[in-house]
Amino acid sequence: MSNTRAGVELLRIGELSRRVDVPVASLRAWEARYGLLSPDRTKGGFRLYGPDDVARVLTMKAHLERGLSASEAARLALSVTHEGATPLLADAAAELDAALARFDEAAAQTVFDRLFGSLSVEAVLREVVVPYLHEVGERWQRGEVTVAQEHFASNVVRGRLMALARGWGRGSGPLAVLACPEDEQHDLPLLLFGLLVRTYGWRIGYLGADTPLPSLVQAVRELHPAAVVVAGTAAGSLDGQSAGLQEVALHAPLYLAGASASEDLARQAHGAYLDGDMFGAARLLAQAHG
Question: What topology does CATH give the domain 175-288?
């Protein structure tokens, strides 16, 4: 359950727990021991948590994953966001936008270095990268950015994401094979999704853009993944492909996502449809096969 205050989303602790993938008991302990969270209270006494709390928890979680003690992770999370996480992220997003608009890759990489050095991958993607890409796409459609600017920005972001993806096929977790439909060239959403699934300990077999179904079937036969995700941005690009998708589903659990898919097509293909935002879809996939 969530509420709002002056347009800012406020979360009950159960929803906060789901949003950041941290148990409620841990959140309560971090609030009591380290003062990590600063909730508002309703008239009924319920605690409500805002964006700053979300960012601090994700920052602490990232430091814990790097091997820091809980007390040190909390200290760093509080020091990074002592003036408020929302302005911090907003400033970074504005700097990134300005750097890419003027074709300044070095400045954009500096912003990325700062963000990934203090926040978790999920936090940076959720709060900065995904909103930025959506905004650039909308501005391009309105004619407010040039084709050159849009291509430059997408390529810089893609390069940074591919650097994060390096080695994501290693490890002992379950394997997810990710592919775009044939003729689909826009694989940034799939790349983002793969990075999110990786945060749950999964390994990624990334086939990427323009993957013919026969090639996907062959790869799935050889790799024996725990799940296969086919996602595209072009509506209708999977129409008429149910037979080929059924063959994929014979060898591994199949998920369809993006504008190219639908619940009806997923049923025809003997798979499942990943609806909603990519963050929830990644969590759903990980939990279904965890």
Answer: Rossmann fold (3.40.50)
